[in-house]
Amino acid sequence: MQITINGRQYAATPDQTILDVARLNDVYIPTLCYHEKVGASGRCRVCMVEIEGRPGVYTACTTPVQDGIIVMTNSPRVLESQRFVVDLILSSGNHDCLACEQNGKCELQDVAYYLGIERPSMKYAPIPPDPDETSAFILIDRTKCILCGRCVEACQHGVVNRVLGFQQRGLETRIGFDSNEPMGESTCVQCGECSQICPVGAITNKKAVRQGRPWEIRNVRTTCPYCGVGCQLELHVKGEQIAEVTGVDHAAPSQGRLCVKGRFGYDFIYAEDRLKTPLIKENGTFREASWDEALDLVANKLKAVIATDGPDAIAGVSCARSTNEDSYQMQKLFRAVFKTNNIDHCART
């Protein structure tokens, strides 16, 4: 089918929404509650559009396409509706961008910039500070929360930890953990999915605080070193120091989701006592050696044992922090080359 957006025609399929078609064709429609990983909810009411011949405005993230419809994303009526909603959001919180960790990567900031809103025109009663710093790796600042629900959907249906939820009602509505417990006392496993999916500065990475602004950061993609699953990491590096780690959306196998080790367990690379060269023990004392010397020593020792006592006299254990491919090669080495089935894998790290 064909639909028209802002005077231009685009191809569409029945399973798509207006927002889907717009994003595929680089037509910007501001959103806050929508994220591909959690789906559409129509909660924030920011993605309003007009459809010719129909009364009112519609949420682009929940409105399915129909053949021949004519959509306007930037008409005066649409922009007025979007400005009013964003104005209300900005008026009901402490959105102090200068000190916020999300400054420069905040979606509310981006939407306000697009709509030309420099400061809110209204002011609700002050929201009392309600920080939660009880967990190991995540900071909660509810005065910045816009109740978009992304974190709730991600926790409930994405990583399925089912810890986060909306609590209380009306003006008192807030994000809470289990039965209204502090995050650090809840059943949260600190996977950090909520911090990655939060569009504002309400849920942030504690280790990344004041480690660098987006314009100081370069991104390096790599593979998580903790197990053989192969989750893709985005290292946010300032200088030669990792400021933060996030998952890579749309990348197999985890589609941006990480465990607590992959997201927060990167300090070991800066350990002063980390081994950087092979060590060989001589007379009860370790000395540094080259890789060639160490590998030749291991190969010769293995050959000698096999020659004397047969292949079943040796055994191998593949490290759980090696990649799946490395573990495959390890078992291939023992079974096909050494001719023994004495190979195991310590997948218990």
Description of the structure:
The protein has 349 residues and is an alpha+beta fold. Helix content is 24%, strand content 19%. The chain is built from eight helices and 17 strands. The chain has helices at residues 18-24, 76-91, 107-115, 150-158, 193-197, 260-264, 291-309, 324-337, and strands at 2-5, 8-11, 48-51, 58-59, 70-72, 131-132, 138-141, 164-167, 174-177, 203-205, 218-223, 232-238, 241-247, 279-282, 285-288, 316-318, 343-345. Helix 2 crosses helix 3. The radius of gyration is 27 Å and the shape is elongated.
Salient structural properties:
single chain; alpha+beta; 5-stranded mixed beta sheet; 8 helices; 19% strand; elongated
Mean pLDDT: 93
**How would you classify the helix and strand content by structural class?**
alpha+beta
| Percentage of residues in strands | 15-25%
The strand line-up of the biggest sheet is 2-1-5-3-4
Rg, rounded, reads: 27 Å
Low-confidence stretches: none
Write down the secondary-structure element order: EEHEEEHHEEHEEHEEEEHEEHEHE
